[in-house]
Write a structure and sequence with these properties.
By secondary structure, this protein is of the alpha/beta class. It has a domain of 249 residues: Rossmann fold (3-Layer(aba) Sandwich). The protein has 22 helices and 16 strands. Strand 1 and strand 2 form a beta hairpin. Helix 9 packs across helix 22. The two termini are 35 Å apart.
């Protein structure tokens, strides 16, 4: 498998080079050159780990790029080091649950160390990174830059803590994450980790990370990223689309080959794009429902073909989706345009210069064959949390609530009859204050009191990663202006030399 830049098809990389670089030299995103079909019959009964190993062979192994690819043995080692009961509280890794009274199935992606879906990718990315480092024969440290709207930060910090030859800095909007998310980052361990709060928003953090990676090629460190702009972060997310589908097959909910829908709460478009990769590999997917919160830039785009980031960014109770510039949309445009790098480059230049772009109607029609967008506002999010509790006696977090609300709109508008799987992307305990208020109508400003009360109400286990959080020492309290991120990164790079 080769990986090509979305802005220049002549820039080609192996998987190990794409992972260590993170971002192509021209600022484009490394994208698989093609998608091979899987044998659904063969892997129908596979465990989660077996599915991962099978899928990764398509993307990591092979003879196309020689020794820069992974061996089958290296893939097996990476998978088994990441996906085990030491890291995940469920042996299934991502259990699938039937919400009988709400007529959808939920795949629970929050059983990992930081209680969010990012764990699926960020428990294995460090193993991909260290293997790639050796294959690329790098002789200087990798400096990993991460912009986070809440969950990526802690998952990356946890995954890369004390990993050899790496140092990681995480930038997060200090007023744009929940108290639990912030504490998870501020209490991170590891001699090679760094956390910085930003007086700004996620888009400010993401812009600075992309700028630094594009303008520090000759520094004394090798810059990379753990955001989903890194193809090594994105590919592992395909696994749970396959595993949840096979769970329905093996529980006699559907027959092998029946199409299903997935509803994905997303801001940066990475999680839902992984679902599209799965479809391109032959998973029977009908619709991928893009669920947005009040920051509905993606909903507008999928309905009009016009992307306009020149709008107010709202701070919501689903902060991981408070994003206006959705980076992974670039990969979708590249793939569905027939790998038209000239078009994609011009669209991204327009976005950078004008804050907007518009795609041809033919491209929008192609995208709409699979993708459909809905959004839910704050009131709808809150009422969905309450209604889901009343109907199914199950807790859902604020991001999953956006997805459930959009699922209801999708069914009402389209009358879709296929089974639908909702991606539950975080534990409700990460947003306990909001969830408790939405269910009971009572406010509790202290997140840990709310966690205790939710536990008493529901009897759902408090995840280990959250239960002991208030006993850990806070290590990182730095806060800087968004305009200072570039200088901060440059100073950090200088310190390595």
């Amino acid at each position: 498998m080769k990986y090509i830049s979305s802005r220049n098809k002549n820039e080609v990389a192996s998987i190990s080079k794409a992972i260590t670089k993170g971002l192509a030299s021209d600022g484009g995103l490394y994208t698989p050159s093609h998608f091979e079909k899987v044998d659904l019959e063969k892997i129908n009964k596979f465990s989660f780990n077996e599915i991962a190993k099978y899928l990764f062979e398509f993307y990591f192994a092979g003879s196309t790029m020689g020794d820069e690819n992974f061996s089958k043995e290296e893939i097996v080692l990476c998978v088994d080091k990441a996906y085990n009961t030491k890291n995940f509280e469920s042996s299934e890794i991502c259990p699938t649950v039937n919400f009988k009274n709400s007529s959808f199935h939920e795949i629970q992606l929050y059983k990992g160390p930081t209680c969010a879906f990012k764990d699926i990718a960020l428990t294995i990315l460090p193993h991909f990174m260290t293997t790639s480092y050796k294959k690329q024969k790098l002789n200087k440290p990798i400096y990993i830059l991460v912009a986070t709207s809440g969950d990526t930060g802690k998952a990356a910090l946890s995954g890369f803590a004390d990993v050899e030859n790496t140092f990681i800095s995480v930038f997060y909007p200090t007023e744009g994450v929940s108290k639990i998310q912030k504490l998870q980052m501020q209490t991170s361990i590891g001699a090679n980790v760094d956390v910085v709060g930003i007086k700004g928003n996620f888009d400010d953090c993401q812009r600075a990370v992309k700028y630094a990676m594009a303008h520090n090629k000759d520094s004394g460190v090798f810059l990379s990223s753990a955001n989903s702009i890194n193809i090594g972060r994105l590919l592992p997310q395909m696994t749970y689309y396959f595993s949840s589908y096979f769970n329905l097959v093996n529980n006699n909910e559907i027959k092998l080959g029946d199409k299903v829908n997935f509803v994905v709460p997303t801001g940066n478009f990475g999680d839902i794009l992984a679902g599209y990769f799965a479809k391109l590999m032959g998973l029977p997917v009908d619709k991928l429902v893009c669920a947005s919160n009040k920051n509905n830039v993606l909903t507008d785009f999928l309905r009009t073909g016009k992307y306009n980031a020149k709008r107010e960014l709202f701070k919501t109770t689903s902060p991981s989706m408070d994003i206006l510039v959705s980076s992974n949309l670039e990969r979708l445009l590249f793939i569905d345009s027939g790998y038209d790098d000239i078009l994609v480059k011009s669209l991204m230049e327009s976005l950078n210069k004008n804050g907007s772009f518009e795609i041809p109607s033919t491209l929008l029609s192609k995208i709409n064959e699979t993708f459909i967008g809905y959004f839910a506002d704050e009131e709808e999010c809150a009422s969905t949390i309450k209604t889901t509790w009343e109907k199914d006696k199950k807790l859902i977090d604020t991001h999953t609530a956006i997805a459930v609300s959009c699922f209801n709109k999708f069914i009402k508008e389209t009358g879709a009859k296929n089974k639908t799987i909702v991606l539950s992307t975080a534990s409700a305990y990460k947003f306990a204050s909001d969830v408790y208020k939405d269910i009971t109508g009572n406010s509790d400003a202290d997140a840990f009191d709310a966690i205790k009360k939710l536990n008493e109400l529901s009897n759902e286990d408090i995840p280990k990663g959250i239960n002991a959080l208030n006993t850990l020492p806070v290590r990182f309290t730095d806060v800087i202006d968004s305009s200072s991120i570039d200088n901060y990164i440059n100073n950090k790079i200088s310190s390595f030399n």
